[in-house]
Inverse folding.
């Protein structure tokens, strides 16, 4: 009788697992090129964030925790503190010589006071290598005058290189200048002497700072930060040794006035250059987040981010959430890899924080630029990004292409909206920009951007400004607080296993059912199962769409071949469920990364090929892999394997 009930409860659990599995099937679709890139970080450096428990923990206790953490870290094998983000309880460390970054991350993640630890990832500018044409200021001026005299006002302005009707010039004189708006350009820097920026008085000035006195006059943590800050050189000396940041900044100023004709009015958009990309166009997470916190704390309303990379950084997401809670718009390049960002995430463009506007690049014919990333869910709209003419260091102009060039159009528009309506928060600004796009069509009436971006549209400045004037300004926005849920979940999964069955199978090591389990143990298991069933049922009913599924997990010992990007690895599988496996392989695989596995059946007679996503990791040796997509044949095979395992386990 007891055994029959036990079997019944097992079947109930199995049913729940299958139901949950079937329900969650469509949530993950995966792209081949998401394979992990393991060397996308600065060698020898990590970023560590302490748990803050802010609701329950006073600042004094937090300071004690931070102090004890730091002395603990520094007392052991030579971690060197490079920078401390004190208010955030975040630390940037150099790891001891000879220690691998992945080992340092694992070591920190095991510290009970650590919320997350991660490599110091590298990001790059989002331009592409199309031929760049260079013009002197005089050339551009005469081109502009020529276009004007031939009656082509659009061509005489920001549109010199794009004839897409984004209606920038129609907004000039149409925006009521209620505020001066600061746009932080987190990029390669700025040529402060370029006539467009000096002529239009378009460079942000920190009024609290006295230039070149080597003193942090306004006590904001940065010395001589008169016109922004150079996080690469760690100084107030601003320059642009690449050209990218100056070009991007010109597009932003150019959304508010004509930057080509040699005459300037006082720009209401002020550029705050924050240099974090070096002369090769690369920069680090540590410097990017420094720049973002600087921007928010020093009065920027919009942050332009014409850069990105494939690695998820919790520290970066947290910085963007900070910007959101301060009402700041965060505009990011969708990327230039012709990729679908819905399946191949690009960061920061793909962070799901409500102030992030990810921008694809369109051509002057309103088609998607061939290089541009897209995403029906993750990329809301497109803006021109092909051969855009803008300012270049040295006083002249150049054409450049990329989602890097599309992004500042949207930053410029966000700034104009803020000029018109200073109290509008990022959430509403994003809403207006998205809702007021044009949806270009081809000659047969088909939407040109239909499968590419969420709105199927390309930016329209005039419509967005008109909508801003008509809008009722919302004083609140949806709450958003960062949580590194995945990582916490990961460690809890690693610590506790994935449910009851695993627990029982662990017990099996010390004389389980197959070795003749006594009746007392059976009834304990039975009672456990009866308790677990309603809990699992409850979890199944209350789970959110993205919540991870719960499956019975069976102990298994079999071989697996793993493909991670170009690497081929051999490892073992120590447990399996309908939803995934526990993979043991001696290699660093990034959390969130996609791997391809060929798993051998326990009897060695067959194998299944399946893709999965790393959802937790332990000591760079053991990984929780969630199956990305499995077809019916694979499901049947796993079911038959687990059924056999189950029969073996309960042969009492
Ligand atoms: Ca200062």
């Amino acid at each position: 009788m007891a055994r029959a009930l036990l079997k019944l409860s097992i079947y109930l659990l199995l049913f729940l697992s299958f139901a949950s599995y079937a329900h969650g099937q469509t949530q993950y679709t995966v792209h081949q090129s998401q394979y992990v890139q393991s060397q996308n970080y600065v060698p020898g450096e990590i970023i560590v964030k302490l748990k803050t428990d802010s609701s329950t923990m006073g600042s004094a206790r937090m300071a004690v925790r931070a102090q004890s953490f730091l002395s603990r870290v520094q007392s052991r094998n030579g971690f060197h503190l490079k920078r401390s983000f004190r208010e955030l309880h975040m630390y940037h460390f150099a790891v001891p010589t000879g220690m691998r970054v992945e080992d340092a991350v694992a070591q920190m993640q095991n510290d009970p006071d650590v919320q997350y630890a991660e490599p110091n990832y590298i990001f790059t500018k989002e331009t592409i290598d199309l031929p760049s044409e260079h013009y002197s200021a005089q050339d551009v001026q005469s081109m502009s005058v020529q276009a004007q005299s031939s009656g082509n006002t659009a061509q005489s302005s920001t549109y010199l290189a794009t004839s897409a009707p984004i209606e920038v010039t129609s907004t000039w004189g149409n925006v009521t200048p209620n505020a001066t708006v600061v746009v932080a350009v987190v990029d390669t820097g700025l040529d402060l002497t370029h006539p467009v920026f000096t002529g239009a008085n378009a460079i942000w000035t920190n009024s609290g700072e006295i230039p070149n006195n080597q003193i942090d006059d306004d006590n904001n943590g940065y010395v001589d930060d008169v016109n922004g800050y150079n996080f690469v050189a760690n100084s107030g000396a601003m320059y642009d040794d690449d050209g990218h940041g100056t070009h991007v900044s010109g597009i932003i100023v150019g959304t508010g006035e004509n930057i080509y004709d040699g005459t300037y009015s006082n720009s209401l958009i002020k550029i705050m250059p924050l240099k974090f990309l070096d002369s090769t166009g690369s920069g680090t997470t540590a410097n990017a987040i420094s720049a973002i916190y600087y921007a928010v704390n020093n009065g920027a309303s919009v942050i332009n981010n014409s850069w990105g990379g494939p690695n998820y950084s919790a520290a970066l997401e947290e910085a963007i959430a900070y910007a959101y809670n301060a009402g700041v718009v965060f505009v990011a390049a969708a990327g230039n890899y012709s990729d679908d960002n819905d399946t191949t995430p690009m960061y920061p463009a793909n962070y799901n924080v409500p102030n992030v506007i990810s921008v694809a690049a369109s051509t002057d014919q309103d088609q998607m630029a061939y290089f541009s990333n897209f995403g029906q869910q993750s990329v809301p709209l497109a803006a021109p990004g092909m051969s855009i003419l803008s300012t270049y260091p040295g006083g002249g102009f150049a054409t450049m292409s990329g989602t890097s060039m599309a992004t500042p159009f949207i930053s410029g528009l966000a700034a104009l909206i803020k000029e018109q309506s200073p109290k509008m928060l990022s959430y509403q600004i994003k809403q207006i920009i998205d809702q007021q796009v044009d949806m270009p069509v081809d000659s047969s009436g088909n939407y040109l951007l239909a499968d590419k971006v969420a709105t199927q549209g390309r930016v329209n400045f005039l419509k967005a400004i008109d909508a801003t004037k008509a809008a009722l300004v919302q004083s609140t926005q949806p709450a958003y607080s960062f949580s590194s849920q995945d990582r916490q979940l990961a460690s809890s999964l690693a610590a506790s296993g994935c449910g009851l069955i695993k627990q029982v199978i662990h017990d099996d090591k010390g004389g389980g059912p197959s070795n003749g389990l006594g009746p007392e143990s059976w009834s304990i298991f039975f009672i456990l199962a009866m308790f677990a069933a309603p809990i699992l049922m409850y979890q199944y009913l209350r789970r959110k769409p993205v919540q991870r599924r719960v499956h019975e997990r069976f102990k298994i010992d079999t071989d697996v071949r793993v493909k991670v990007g170009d690497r081929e690895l051999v490892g073992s599988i120590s447990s399996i469920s309908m939803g995934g496996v526990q993979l043991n392989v001696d290699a660093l695989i990034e959390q969130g990364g996609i791997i391809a596995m060929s798993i051998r059946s326990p009897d060695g007679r067959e194998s299944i090929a399946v893709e999965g996503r790393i959802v937790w990791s332990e000591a760079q040796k053991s990984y929780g892999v969630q199956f990305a997509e499995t077809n019916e044949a694979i499901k049947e095979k796993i079911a038959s394997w687990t059924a056999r395992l189950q029969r073996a386990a309960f042969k009492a």
Remarks:
- The longest strand covers residues 114-125.
- Residues 125-484 form a domain with the Rossmann fold fold (CATH 3.40.50.200).
- Confidence is low (pLDDT under 50) at residues 12-38, 485-522, 539-550.
- The pocket of calcium ion is lined by residues 209, 216-218, 220, 222, 225 (CB under 6 Å).
